[in-house]
Design a protein that fits this description.
single chain; 89 residues; 2 strands; 22% helix
């Protein structure tokens, strides 16, 4: 008998690495694949983007792009502080 079988694997969208706990784990649903990846410390976004826990510049930049912009708090009548860009410290 020949039949189609669909499976899912987890790969990092930044470096392409697969889940390092197993050479090529196969999952029957994307939900199980995502849950296992999260359990292993991977980031899985709502739109199924995946970032492995490697700590290098490319991975940190990918995580930073997921973050919302820093809030800008402005209060009417508040005077701005000139903190400058003194980098001599």
């Amino acid at each position: 008998m020949i039949r189609a079988i669909t499976f899912h694997i987890v790969t990092c969208d930044v470096c392409g690495d697969e889940d390092s706990d197993d050479p090529m784990p196969l999952y029957d649903t994307h939900e199980r694949a995502a849950a296992d990846a999260r359990h292993a410390g991977w980031i899985v976004t709502a739109d199924q983007r995946v970032i492995c826990p490697v700590n290098d510049r490319e991975h940190r930049a990918a995580v930073d792009r997921l973050m919302p912009p820093e809030p800008r708090i402005e209060i009417e009548g508040q005077q701005s502080l000139d903190l400058g860009t003194d980098t001599s410290r």
